[in-house]
Design goal:
Structural class of chain B: mainly alpha
Largest sheet of chain B: none
Order of helices and strands of chain B: HHHHHHHHHHHHHH
Strand content of chain B: under 5%
Number of strands of chain A: 0
Number of domains of chain B: 2
Strand content of chain A: under 5%
Shape of chain B: globular
CATH class of the largest domain in chain B: Mainly Alpha
Distance between the termini of chain A: 50 Å
CATH superfamily of the largest domain in chain B: MetI-like
Helix content of chain A: over 70%
Number of strands of chain B: 0
Oligomer: heterodimer
Number of domains of chain A: 2
CATH superfamily of the largest domain in chain A: MetI-like
Radius of gyration of chain A: 23 Å
Largest sheet of chain A: none
Structural class of chain A: mainly alpha
CATH class of the largest domain in chain A: Mainly Alpha
CATH topology of the largest domain in chain A: MetI-like fold
Radius of gyration of chain B: 23 Å
Distance between the termini of chain B: 37 Å
Number of helices of chain A: 14
CATH architecture of the largest domain in chain B: Orthogonal Bundle
Shape of chain A: globular
């Protein structure tokens, strides 16, 4: 306690030793130690095993589906999320507040429920799937279905990051652009979009990061065909069921490494674009 | 064209965009929710009620409640403790601590379950020791609680930290100078100040705890009536081609989501000022 107290700037408020000590203890117990065991397990693989793992066709296909699918879903979320946020902030129509509250549904709805609901909708005899079946487009049990589930789960991230920025935007700038002769579309492309850039980037990266690791809402609609519609998290479970703990840990570490790199890259890009913004 | 009109889109553009946005919301949000309810009732109310009265469903509901009842208070105590330490004191490493608390949000649910299997599973680090002492964590209640605590770890803390940061330390300091003890200051000043934010965090934490699927799926072992939570029960019924049963169980969870959403929106409408200002 005494040593912990020396760590902080003096204050008359008591309880630093107790609360800081408990916080660090609980954080280590639940988060830090378990996650470091993951790294340790992955290090158990020798170089040959690593090479075998990352050249395995099934592993590569699953990682590719998870990441490319998540990027496509993140992009779709950015476009759709901008549209939804724009309409919710700028226009008034009956039911706007309810529509705004509904946006958070993917956060609140348990993923398994979303999973079976989306599968029922997009199956070939489902409410939506039946319209695509005659066109020869299969959605459920294909990578398209995976992307749809990932888009569903990521949509609120973009709406909720763009909405507050859009609310705070100064109308003066838009008026200035208009009075200087810019068309509405020009104002949108050259004035509004650049100021929304960082928020869109942040929303995109959050949605993509969530989609990469998503499991519950994806596995039902995916069909889980090895090499075609099998996502990386499912492959981890398959490895676990075969008691290949090291292999499961290795795939998990690869996933974590790629998504942290992705988040970092987007952070750097958005910081650059922010400093370059007018 | 006047300037004020110049910052608005033509009427037809406004209407088209609004309809498009509503279409997106209907297709992506309303339709899945409606499907769950309609599929649950597709073979008549009797069939749905039969699922609800089924012993396996009842024990799944019981287990889900038990897991949430243990996990949510654990993270609530942690959230209070972390936000007190982080916002009432100044110390080096503070922002690192805040980022570390957020880690579970960026870890895949499956990986969240995996780490506990690596620790306590049959061939995990402590697996042999647990077998020798006749204890079970994975494929039992403790594993379900651990995985749930991990995925819901940041909810309360990340709501309270910005809120208490904003409120500062003056009121607590005044109470202490006037002779109140630390616990008294916490109980009569800090807690009432953050009550709505606390409720908001607990609400979201609980919704996730009851609805978690991926992390719990890895550590559960899927034993019907024993280690099956309600979301896992949905999967089992679905894979058994008992669609009415699956969607009935799912509609209980959907109802939970709707109630959460309504309470959350109500809190945001009436207590906006007393909630953390920054959130996505």
């Amino acid at each position: 306690m005494i040593t912990l107290n020396r760590w902080r700037t003096p204050s008359i408020i008591p309880g630093f030793g107790l609360t800081a000590g408990y916080t660090v203890f609980y954080l280590s117990l639940i988060v830090l130690i378990p996650l470091s065991v993951l790294l340790l397990k992955a290090l158990n693989l020798n170089l040959d095993q690593w090479v075998a793992l990352i050249t395995d066709k099934r592993v590569l296909a699953a990682l590719r589906l998870s990441f490319v699918g998540a990027l496509v879903a993140g992009f779709l979320d950015t476009v759709l999320g901008l549209l939804v946020a724009w309409v919710l902030v700028r226009y008034s129509f009956p039911g706007r507040k309810i529509a705004d509250a509904l946006v958070d549904l993917p956060f609140a709805l348990p993923t398994a429920v979303a999973g079976i609901a989306l599968t029922a909708l997009y199956a070939k005899n489902g409410w939506i799937g039946q319209f695509f079946e005659p066109l020869g487009i299969k959605i459920a049990y294909t990578p398209i279905g995976v992307v749809i589930a990932m888009t569903f789960i990521g949509l609120p991230f973009v709406v909720r990051t763009v909405e507050p920025i859009l609310q705070d935007l100064d109308r003066d700038v838009e008026e200035a652009a208009a009075s200087l002769g810019a068309s509405r579309l020009q104002t949108f492309a050259h004035v509004l979009l650049p100021s929304l850039g960082p928020a869109l980037m942040a929303g995109f990266s959050l949605a993509t990061a969530r989609a990469v690791g998503e499991y519950g809402s994806v596995i039902f609609i995916a069909g889980n065909m090895p090499g075609i519609s099998e996502i990386a998290p499912l492959l981890i479970i398959t490895k676990l069921e075969q008691y290949d703990y090291n292999g499961a840990a290795a795939i998990a570490v690869i996933m974590l490494a790629i998504s942290f790199t992705l988040l970092l890259a987007v952070n750097i890009i958005s910081r650059k674009s922010r400093s370059g913004a007018p | 064209m006047s300037v004020s009109n110049a910052t608005r889109e033509p009427r037809w553009v406004q209407i088209t965009l609004t309809l498009l946005a509503l279409l997106v919301l209907a297709l992506f949000l309303v339709l899945p929710l409606a499907t769950v309810i309609i599929q649950a009732l597709s073979k008549g109310v009797d069939r749905s009620i039969a699922t609800l009265e089924n012993q396996d469903t009842l024990s799944a509901i019981r287990l889900t409640l038990t897991v949430a009842l243990i996990s949510v208070p654990l993270n609530l105590i942690f959230g209070l403790s972390a936000s007190w330490a982080i916002t009432k004191f100044t110390f080096p490493g503070k922002s690192l601590l805040v980022s570390l608390i957020e880690i579970p949000f960026s870890v895949s649910p499956v990986i969240s379950g995996l780490i506990f299997v690596l620790l306590f599973g049959l061939r995990g680090l402590f697996g042999p020791w647990l077998i020798d002492h006749d204890m079970k964590i994975i494929f039992a209640l403790p594993g379900l609680v651990l995985a749930t605590v991990f995925v819901t770890f940041p909810f309360v803390a990340r709501e309270l930290i910005p809120l208490m940061e904003e409120q500062g330390r003056d009121e607590e300091e005044a109470a202490l100078v006037l002779g109140a003890g630390g616990f008294r200051a916490f109980w009569s000043i800090t807690l009432p100040n953050v009550r709505w934010g606390l409720l908001y965090g607990v609400l979201l934490c609980n919704a996730r705890a009851m609805g978690e699927f991926g992390a719990v799926s890895v550590v559960s072992g899927h034993v019907r009536g024993l280690t099956n939570t309600l979301p896992l029960h949905v999967e089992i019924l679905y894979n058994d081609y008992d669609f009415v049963g699956a969607f009935t169980a799912a509609s209980i969870l959907a109802l939970l989501a709707l109630v959460t959403l309504i309470l959350k929106t109500a809190l945001e409408w009436w207590h906006r000022d007393e909630l953390a200002s920054s959130r996505h």
